[in-house]
Amino acid sequence: MIPYGKQDINQTDIDAVINVLKSDYLTQGPKVPEFEQAISQYVGAVHAVAVNSATSALHIACLALNIGEGDIVWTSPITFVASANCALYCGAKIDFVDIDPITGNMCPKALAQKLKIALKEGQLPKVVIPVHMAGHSCDMQAINQLLTPYNIHIIEDASHAIGGQYQQTPIGQCQYSDITIFSFHPVKIITSAEGGMATTNDQNLADSMRLLRSHGITKQPEKMLRSNEGDWYYEQHQLGMNYRMTDLNAALGLSQLVRVDEFVAQRNRLAQAYHSCLNGLAIEHVSPLSDSYSARHLHIIRLGNASKRRMIFDAMRAAGIQVHVHYFPVHLQPYYLNLGFKAGDFKQAEQFYEQILTLPLYPELTTAQLEYICATLKGLLE
Ligand SMILES: *Cc1c(COP(=O)(O)O)cnc(C)c1O
């Protein structure tokens, strides 16, 4: 089976993890701050806070922005459920902004329209979470311009997007957002097995997220509220979690980061090969904005004839090709239907979902495999 995504692990990555296993610290050692510093340098953000998953990063990002009961958070319906769940963890209400089917991302026009209605009804969100689907950057400048007048905060869900750029600026620099979060799950661009990172240029947000990832506990003498009792003393200031990344994970992430540009360049070459190889077929490629460089996490196509999607999906799986569908709209998940969402709420997203098919894309995919995938798809479409 040709998988839809796959990590690329070399001997240097393996040695990096083994070295940690032989060292004094398996967790809370030097590798985590090293990884944070490397990410912060790579994306050009002042702070980077490592955690055990992007889901945890989304949770503490929301908490650091004071999301709680009575607040409203908006995200895209075409995403992994974690982008929306983080609001619910905080006791807030979640709602969605419909997408632009060309990019698969939150549509600025739909956002403008929804803001108008929300303003009238006194239901403005406190945070909006645009998701860079497939690694294609959202139109962050447009989104930022719409939200800034109302002091609405922005968290970029860049789980798919490390190594990508928007307006010649690395994703994660937070040029148009408060916080950007990344995922290092094995199917993503680089991996730490499980792991996530939140980047920000705001010292207070970084401090708050550092506290929240480790029980809300501080050991910094200058932060103590009571008098220091001695070297054993620490204070809990907030209700935090244990969302810490281990040094094993950080060492793997750090080693993978060395090759991120290589991975993304190869993913872009393969995406170009899909474009040439599938030229002339009744399909559209979900594509990045012109002033951006996509990290190309996924290669998603839209079929001209949506009614053939199931047949094509099953036939390709039968041919040993693990095509996929990203994503089933979050608002139609049974859990979200129970919250009151229903079919028809976000029509572009629902139509998009019916048409899409994710083709395999990962650095080690060979030209021969890609040609076999294209030939199989062609045969089924004709
Ligand atoms: C993978 C993913 C997440 C969650 O990442 P984890 O590191 O697995 O928690 C969140 N948002 C999106 C868009 C994702 O694809």
From TrEMBL:
The keyword Secreted does not apply. CDD domains: AHBA_syn (cd00616). Keywords: Aminotransferase, Pyridoxal phosphate, Transferase. Pfam families: DegT_DnrJ_EryC1. Its EC number is 2.6.1.92. GO terms for molecular function: pyridoxal phosphate binding; transaminase activity. GO terms for biological process: polysaccharide biosynthetic process. InterPro entries: DegT/StrS_aminotransferase, PseC, PyrdxlP-dep_Trfase, PyrdxlP-dep_Trfase_major, PyrdxlP-dep_Trfase_small. The keyword Transcription regulation does not apply. The modification N6-(pyridoxal phosphate)lysine is found at K188. Coiled coil: none annotated. The active site is at K188 (proton acceptor). It comes from the Bacteria. It is an enzyme of class 2 (transferase). Belongs to the DegT/DnrJ/EryC1 family. This is UDP-4-amino-4, 6-dideoxy-N-acetyl-beta-L-altrosamine transaminase. The gene is pseC.
